[in-house]
């Protein structure tokens, strides 16, 4: 069994296979019967140590659309609250015969550790500030659908890069698929290791906006901040928020993305968030197709077609 | 990749590779040439019209890979005779196969249902080779999830026998009695640059890509 732990593990061909598969599966959303019998008899466990209604529901629905049996484990109210370790939880899942485990954990690397303890395929649904590969896949899918290409696409990722697993996964995947990425953030919110990432870095949003095809706004992850990274939300908003005035500086076809949940008025103004060029709800719909594609390619055959 | 019809249940690779440039090698023998395939398709088109009394509510659905161009060609022929467009499309059955766990996860083909939909219509499934019948079973399941046709019929260019399910074709281009040690390959101009049906020795496992 293979796993999807990092967007960086995917080759160009594998990533393209996932995007193409998702595209075919997206058609099923319009049918009266939205299910496929493909994963009948297989069990997928959603192991969520952090609250995330959006991602968990998306994975749950994706597995159900493929006829898998789904078990939701959330840390609250489970043995985890009683002090059970990740390893013991993993061994319990193993004993239950889980074919796939979708894990969300606040510790970077948790998905990787889990993959060493269970036989089933592990899908990383966000580990700390490290990675969130299916989010990157759905972002890239949305870009490809909207812009028609990825090669040479200029993408700006704006905001709290330091605490964002979405940013890291996107940089890795977009680089694999031939897009040019520029990170835009206050110097305090740029990760220390950024020089090892395949992307450019800028501290000036206005300068980057005009030459971007896609502007991806990130959420300011206040819950992960153990100090002050910028003076006030108001100042952050003035320098790195996307308001109507800045939106007007972007070229006419450029799109605005946001992984959600949005903090309106700080990262993004309501005017921009509600624009038809903002793809937030589209990203959610595409997330379902992407997660169906990933589960199918990992669990649908005798061995996985993707992952490491 | 050529449409290699083999015993179901064997390991197969998922990719849709390029078609073989040289189909005739070793003991391979071409059993149908281009003009014979054309004639067979013309005859099937007429049979469809006759059985469906003018083909008023017929929809042709090809099963990828090689059923799709065949469905297109049949639609073209019916149109030529009746002077009326016949809706046609493709129906991918990958997600409905019963042997998914015997091979690595495979890439999906295209499902492209004409705008008319399939409710209340006579759907003619089109495939290149009819073998075990398991592909057709999967196609019936897939159709069931898409809508409710009035009737479903089956057209195949070659029927090579060895059925494992109680399934029979309504329209057959050529009945080709084969041994299980043989391999039937259909080549089509649209995908392979020429039309031919080639009978060759079964290749050693694993590695057939496409199948019935």
TrEMBL record, chain A:
Higher taxonomy: Bacteria, Bacillati, Actinomycetota, Actinomycetes, Streptosporangiales
Family: Belongs to the aspartate/ornithine carbamoyltransferase superfamily. ATCase family.
Ranges where the Aspartate/ornithine carbamoyltransferase carbamoyl-P binding domain occurs: 2-145
HAMAP family assigned to the protein according to its UniProt record, in alphabetical order: Asp_carb_tr (MF_00001)
Record's subunit section: Heterododecamer (2C3:3R2) of six catalytic PyrB chains organized as two trimers (C3), and six regulatory PyrI chains organized as three dimers (R2).
One GO term (biological process): amino acid metabolic process
Catalytic activity: carbamoyl phosphate + L-aspartate = N-carbamoyl-L-aspartate + phosphate + H(+)
MF (Gene Ontology): amino acid binding; aspartate carbamoyltransferase activity
Protein name: Aspartate carbamoyltransferase
Gene3D superfamilies according to UniProt: Aspartate/ornithine carbamoyltransferase
Protein's UniProt keywords contain DNA-binding: no
Pfam family, any one: OTCace
Residue ranges of every copy of the Aspartate/ornithine carbamoyltransferase Asp/Orn-binding domain listed in the record: 151-298
Residues annotated for carbamoyl phosphate binding in this entry: 54-55, 104, 132, 135, 260-261
Organism: Nocardiopsis gilva YIM 90087
Involved pathway(s): Pyrimidine metabolism; UMP biosynthesis via de novo pathway; (S)-dihydroorotate from bicarbonate: step 2/3
Automatic annotation (TrEMBL), chain B:
Domain of life, source organism: Bacteria
NCBIfam families membership: PRK05205.1-3, PRK05205.1-5
Listed name of the protein: Bifunctional protein PyrR
Record gene name: pyrR
Cross-referenced HAMAP family: PyrR
A GO MF label: uracil phosphoribosyltransferase activity
Record domain Phosphoribosyltransferase: where: 29-174
Role noted for this protein: Regulates the transcription of the pyrimidine nucleotide (pyr) operon in response to exogenous pyrimidines.
One BP annotation, GO: regulation of DNA-templated transcription
Keywords, comma-separated and alphabetical: Glycosyltransferase, Transcription, Transcription regulation, Transferase
Organism from which the protein derives: Nocardiopsis gilva YIM 90087
